[in-house]
């Protein structure tokens, strides 16, 4: 592209002339049409692909997820906690650690090439249970893959709810904490991570710690939100609940 240096006094006139010449340039194709590749056919026939391929696969995955949720809900809180506490973390292995979660499961569009460099992939796919709902303390203790729908189904019948309920049922607690969970009620309660009172983290050398804002791991407590899983494996979180009622009064004030 040519750059025109235009003296200030005649700039109006000259720039008009330039834009005219540019218009005529535009009529010629910018680059020759490229040959169609298979992706173009995918896009062109996307209705067929979506209806006969994507939807059935998604439906099957949903059924599996649903059955997993039902299986988890059939267990008592005690049983779920027992299974959670049975997990052992190997402190002898050294090397880069990451979760075994595949990129196609996640909502985000992030390049996960860094996972190829990992020495150990830790499969956390079973960490999808609501471990406890403490009505006295108004705290839910959940594993990172628990999603919004699952946690609502447990707490709403108790007249309790998360303070920040991110809108999509599939969003997981782990994702909302280690990246940026937010919803309308954040105007009052802050980000999703601001409603968390404790994190259970497995550190890089295999040690499980519980970080709260006033124990020895308080630095970790403040560093975990938005850390994108870089500081350790989040294996449980204790999240504040708020009381809810069946109906709510809304006052409309025209402005
Ligand atoms: C929840 O609140 C409703 C009324 O708002 C009440 O009828 C119901 O008994 C409450 N449930 C529990 C578990 O407290």
UniProtKB/TrEMBL annotation:
One of its GO terms (molecular function) is Delta24-sterol reductase activity. It is an enzyme of class 1 (oxidoreductase). The chain crosses the membrane at residues 48-68. It is found in: Membrane. SUPFAM superfamilies: FAD-binding/transporter-associated domain-like (SSF56176). InterPro entries: Diminuto-like, FAD-bd_PCMH, FAD-bd_PCMH-like_sf, FAD-bd_PCMH_sub2, Oxid_FAD_bind_N. Residues 122-244 form the FAD-binding PCMH-type domain. One of its GO terms (cellular component) is membrane. Keywords: Membrane, Oxidoreductase, Transmembrane, Transmembrane helix. GO terms for biological process: steroid metabolic process. It is a single-pass membrane protein. Its EC number is 1.3.1.72. The keyword Phosphoprotein does not apply. It holds the Pfam family FAD_binding_4. Its main location: membrane. This is Delta(24)-sterol reductase. It comes from Olea europaea subsp. europaea. The lineage of its organism: Eukaryota, Viridiplantae, Streptophyta, Embryophyta, Tracheophyta.
């Amino acid at each position: 592209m040519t750059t025109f240096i235009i003296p200030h006094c005649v700039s109006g006139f000259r720039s008009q002339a330039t834009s005219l010449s540019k218009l005529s340039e535009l009529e010629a194709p910018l680059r020759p049409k490229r040959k169609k590749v298979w992706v173009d056919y995918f896009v062109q026939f996307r209705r067929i692909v979506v209806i006969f391929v994507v939807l059935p696969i998604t439906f099957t995955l949903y059924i599996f997820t649903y059955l997993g949720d039902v299986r988890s809900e059939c267990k008592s809180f005690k049983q779920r906690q027992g299974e959670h506490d049975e997990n052992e973390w190997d402190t002898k292995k050294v090397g880069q650690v990451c979760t075994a979660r595949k990129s196609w499961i996640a909502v985000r569009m992030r390049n996960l090439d860094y996972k190829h460099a990992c020495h150990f992939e830790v499969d956390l796919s079973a960490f999808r249970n609501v471990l406890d709902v403490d009505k006295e303390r108004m705290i839910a203790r959940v594993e990172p893959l628990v999603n919004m729908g699952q946690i609502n189904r447990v707490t709403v019948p108790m007249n309790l709810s998360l303070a920040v309920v991110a809108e999509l049922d599939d969003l997981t607690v782990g994702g909302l904490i280690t990246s940026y969970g937010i919803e309308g009620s954040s105007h009052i309660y802050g980000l999703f991570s601001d409603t968390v009172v404790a994190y259970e983290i497995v550190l890089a050398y295999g040690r499980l710690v519980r970080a709260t804002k006033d124990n020895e791991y308080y630095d970790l407590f403040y560093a975990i939100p938005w850390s994108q899983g870089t500081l350790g494996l989040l294996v449980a979180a204790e999240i504040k609940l708020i009381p809810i009622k069946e109906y709510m009064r809304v006052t409309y004030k025209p402005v």
